[in-house]
Specification:
Rossmann fold, 2 domains, binds magnesium ion
């Protein structure tokens, strides 16, 4: 059996990271309201989310020239250590590195930086970043492991909805919601 894990809100407490973004921007007098409004606008541009690009764009807009993007980014990221889901990692350790993948969506540099700083690289045989849809990567893993059951764990149903299940007959999806642990435990 092979296991594919999403990163944000599954392996990592992304809500805490978002709180740290609010906190650090609050310290330089950018309100949560301004930040949230701009976040929606930035996301609607459709490019994979990069925290550095978001900060750079927001700071320029808010005339915060004295505060460099790099400093704020470092501050946010240094407050965001130890946000890995340790309960889930205990299970993953037992499943074995050769059976576990991370498939995450977003800006490659930002996703890999969060993963690197979480110190979880060693638990996974492959870490793959998709800019938007995970479809191609998931279907490829299913094809490469035809004889095995593949379990794909994600907190967002949209990443299941665009899969061509005829191309992945060996795939089972698990929505990682408040019952995510129970659902995962039941297939082990
Ligand atoms: Mg997620």
């Amino acid at each position: 059996m092979k296991f594919i894990f999403d990163f944000d809100d599954v392996l990592f407490d992304t809500k805490k990271l978002k709180e740290n973004i609010f906190r650090c921007l609050g310290e330089i007098s950018i309100s949560k309201n301004t930040e949230e409004k701009y976040y929606e606008e930035f996301k609607s541009m459709g490019t994979p989310f990069s925290l550095k690009e978001f900060l750079s764009s927001l700071l320029t807009r808010e005339n915060k020239k004295k505060d460099t993007t790099e400093d704020i980014y470092e501050k946010i990221m240094s407050l965001s250590l130890n946000l890995a889901n340790t309960e889930l990692l205990k299970i993953i350790k037992k499943l074995g590195k050769k059976n576990c993948y991370i498939v995450t969506s977003g800006d490659e540099e930002f996703q890999l930086d969060k993963i690197r700083r979480s110190n979880i690289d060693d638990y996974f045989c492959e870490i793959l970043v998709a800019p938007h849809s995970k479809k191609g990567i998931i279907e490829k893993i299913c094809k490469e492991n035809k004889g095995e059951q593949i379990i794909f764990v994600d907190d967002k149903i949209k990443f299941f909805e665009d899969l061509d299940m005829t191309k992945c007959p060996n795939l089972k999806t698990i929505l990682f919601d408040e019952n995510g642990f129970e659902k995962l435990s039941s297939v082990l």
